[in-house]
Structure formats: C-alpha cells, structure tokens
Amino acid sequence: MTQPLLDLKNVTMRFGGLTAVKDVSFSVNKTDLVAVIGPNGAGKTTLFNMITGIYTPSEGQVLLDGLSLNDKQASDITSLGIARTFQNIRLFNNLSVIDNIKIARHTRIQYSFLDGIFKTKKYRNEEKLIEEESLKLLALFNLDSKKDLLAKNLPYGAQRKLEMARALATKPKLLLLDEPAAGMNPTETKELSELIHFIRDQFQIAVILIEHDMRLVMEIAEKIFVLDYGNLIASGNAFNVQNNPKVIEAYLGAEI
Amino acid sequence: MDYYLQILTNVGIFITLTLSLNLINGYCGQFSLGHAGFWGVGAYASAVYGVYFALPIDPAFNMAIALSVGFIAAALCGLLIGIPCLRLKGDYLAIATIGFSEILRIIIMNTESIGGPRGFTNIPRWSNSWWVWGTALLVTLFMLNLKRSAYGRAIISIREDEIAAETMGVNLFRYKLFSFIVGAGIAGMAGSLVAHDQQFLHPNNFSFMWSVCILVMVILGGQGSVTGSIVGAVILTILPEILKLIGSDVSTWRVSIYAALMIILMLTRPQGIFGPHELFEKKKYQKGLA
After folding, report:
1. Predicted ipTM?
2. In tens digits, what is the pLDDT along chain A, a chain of 256 residues?
3. First-to-last CA distance in chain A?
C-alpha cells in the first residue's frame, strides 16, 4: 500500500486536566475528500490545530508524507503543504482582496529581501507573475471583479470563498476547512458542495472538512470520521456512519 | 537663517524617527513605547565613535561610519530587547519597552566616560542638512518599497491577524524581530545625526516623553502610512515653533497641545490623517494594501 498523505498516529491533546483529543489515529490519502464530524466540543477544531501546528500534540504523531510535523512551527507546516480556513473567518480585513491572496504566496517567494527594496528585475518579474496567478485564482472563485475591495467589505459568503482561495494560494497538498457552511443558506451550501468538489478535482489535493451540516457531509464526504469527547468513535462511508449505534448515541443519546 | 535651518534639520530627523517607529508600530502592529531609547543609544554610540575613535579622514566618511555605528548599536539593542519582549502582546509589550528604554537611559546617565548626567560634549560636527535629508529620503524609499514587496506584506499581515498570518506561512517571531531591529537601527541613525549636528547630548533628551512624541507623530499621520508619518513629523515639529512665535512658553504648552490634538484626532479621525494609505496612491489602490 502506498504511503498516506496525512497520517495521525495515536494523537492525544491535553490542556491541563482536560483531554480534548484522545488517542486518535486515522489517515488521509492524496485527493481524498473526508469529513470530521461530532457534537460541539468533541475536539474537531483541536484536531485541526494539531495538524496545522498551532498546538503540538501531547502524545502521538502527525505525519505528512511520512514526515513528522510535531516539532514543526505552523509557518513551516504551511510551506510543507497544509492550508486551512477558520471557523470564525480570519481574513486580513483591512487589506484588499488581492493582497489577501498575495500574502498567501509568502512561502513560495523566490526573490530576496534586497531584491524587494531595490526593485530589481527579479522582483518585478516575480511580482507580475504573482499578480497574474492571484487574479486567476480569484477568477475561479468569481472574486476577480472585487479584487480591490477591502476584505472586510465583502459579503459573508464571499469572505468564506476568499478564505478558501487564500488557503489554496499557499499551494497546499491538503486543505482543511473548518465549518465552511456555517451561516450559509441551503442554496449557498449547495454551491459550496460543488465548489469543494471542484477544488479537489482542479487542484488534485486532499480535503478534510469539519462540518455540522449533515446534508453537506453525507453528500460530499467519501469517508467520515466521528469524534465524541475526543475519542474517534466511528469511521467509514456515509451509510456506515449513519447506522452506527455509537454515532446515534453520541448525537441523540442512548435509549434507556 | 540658522534658526530656520535648525528647524528644517529637526524636521528631517523626526521624519526618520517617525518612519522607523512606523515600521514597528504601523506595519507590524507591535506597540512599542521605547523608541527614544534606541534613538539615544544610536546617538551616544556614534558620539563615542566621534570623540574617542574618530579616524583622521574626511568628515563625510566619518559621518558615514558614525551613521553605521549608530545603526548597528541601536539594532543590537533592538535584538536584545526584542527577543524577550516580542513574546508579549499589546499593552504588555508597551510596558516592557518603556522599561527597557528607561534602563538604557539610566545606564547612559551613570556612565562617566560619556558625560553621565552632565551631558556628552565636544562631539565633532560632521552632520549637515544634506545628511539629515538624505537619510530621511532613503528611509522613505526603503519604507515605500518594503510595503510593496512580499516581505512587507508579510509584516503587515501580522498586524492584521497573527494566527492567520502564521497559517499563511509567515514566521511571526522572525518578522516581528526583523521589524524591531530595523526600526531600532533606523532610530539609531537619527540619533547619530542629532549627535553630530548638535555636538552635545544629554540623557534627558531621550526620555520616555520623546517616545510618546514620536508615537503621536505616527498616529497623527496614520499608522502604516509613509506619507502620513512624514506629514505627522512635519506638523508636530513645526507646531511648537509656531507657538513660540505667538509667544507662549513652548515647553509648558507643547504637552498640552499634543494631548488636545490627540483627543481631537481620536474623536474625529481615529485612523490618523491618512489612515493606512498613501497620499499619491492610485485611486484603485486606495482601498488596498497601502
């Protein structure tokens, strides 16, 4: 069997006496589209924070292409190929839409600091390329006409899209989406599910999403992992998970 | 004539100082209140070079060396202070930087070989308005070009949202430290210009009050705006002189005027005169990075 893209091995995260994630293991292959679900406080976002290096796991290992991410800083993990969006949108609000994208190119910059200060040819050529590529990316998300607006002035749905575009601008192998459908109406959610499919096919990357909108999850996820109180209680395709008694118990409570 | 030339020189020096603080405060969003400390270190270091180690060469070369000495000394202090302090955020960073700059001032005050509380005298006069305005111009170009490069964008993204910046691959500590060191270094150059212009230094010329004055200039012009910093520095350097012409006692009124100005500004235009934008930006760019 080929090496998985992302491999979590017995990952545990403790905050003082609280165990937010307990002994979770799973793996994600290249171009997989998987979902992590679970009730509030199950540890889903903590899991994301460990994968992206915001937290270091108390125990266990996170591997990307077989390389351990435990001792890596968040910024290094980005350059290794993991990008994410946030549950509560975190754009660079007072910067323009296109500058939001350009910043995400940071780890791929070739020209040196002095090239930038003296505006050498190398700087000019690369900035031109960045501008073109950023516009292309924005066009994929229908945001190119809004490129000079401040990010904070975009409508909510467009902000979500911009955050995804910005994550993709880092050229990731793995994209983590933290509740992308939060606050969206059914039409927007439908668009979103198409968009996520499109992203996966177009960029040939793996996508993990955290989501509470079960219709979206069941529709697009090829594999679902269910967390409850930090434990991985079930995994499998939509049908298996929906009929798993442990999952039903976690969401609806046990029969007395 | 000399009087007006002196004001012109001061304006140039304060433009350099304000821009250097703008890098730390406006671009990177780190609230530093110890800028006068770096200014003083640069001034004293290059004065020490001028008094004790000056080479028998053309004053222009000596001034170039003095500027480098001022830059390096202040940048080293920036490094020393930045490593522990930049782990702090917001108000805590401000308090820590005040503390450090006062420590630097007290050390200078208690070092006899550089004049201690009597002040440092007999510094060779190497500087002139060409040096002052040349430095101000170079620093202005540096700041403008930095803003438009990927490295400047990374620094500005830290101001906007640290966690998002980090997730975009920006190494927070490295860029914060970079801003702090370079900002401190440029303030040191401004110090060097003062030392070799006035030929006399006193530790109290670099007290906490001056850190506040420079910060006021940055905020008046607009945090993150290069043209704003220039306008802020010009207005607040010339204002006391105008008050002097009117006849009031400058040193008593200046602080009150600053305070009143800040209150009016914060009530009417909290983002400063230019906000984060530049004066001559193209219209389409105006809502952008700036």
Report:
1. 0.89
2. 578 999 999 999 999 889 999 999 999 999 999 999 998 888 999 999 999 999 999 999 999 999 999 999 999 999 999 999 999 999 999 999 999 999 999 888 999 999 999 999 999 999 999 999 999 999 999 999 999 999 999 998 899 999 999 999 999 999 999 999 988 888 889 989 999 999 999 999 999 999 988 889 998 999 999 999 999 998 988 888 888 888 888 887 777 6
3. 44
pTM attached to this predicted model: 0.90
Question: How far, in Å, are A103, B18, B24, B89, B137 from residue A118 at the CA level?
Answer: 20, 22, 21, 32, 14
Q: Is A18 exposed, middle or buried (0-12, 13-18, 19+ CB in 10 A)?
A: exposed
Residue B269 lies in a domain: no
In chain B, the number of structural domains is 1
Question: Is B166 in CB contact (< 8 Å) with chain A?
Answer: yes
Token couple for B176: 């914060």
Residue A93: closest CA among chain B residues belongs to which residue? B160
Q: In chain A, whose CA is at the least distance from the CA of B160?
A: A92
Say whether A96 and B163 touch across the interface (CB within 8 A): no
Query: Can you list the domains of chain A with their CATH numbers?
Result: 6-81+172-252 (3.40.50.300), 92-155 (no CATH)
Q: Is residue B264 part of a domain?
A: no
Domain that holds residue B141: 2-207
Our CA angle for B221, B156, A109, nearest 5°, is: 140
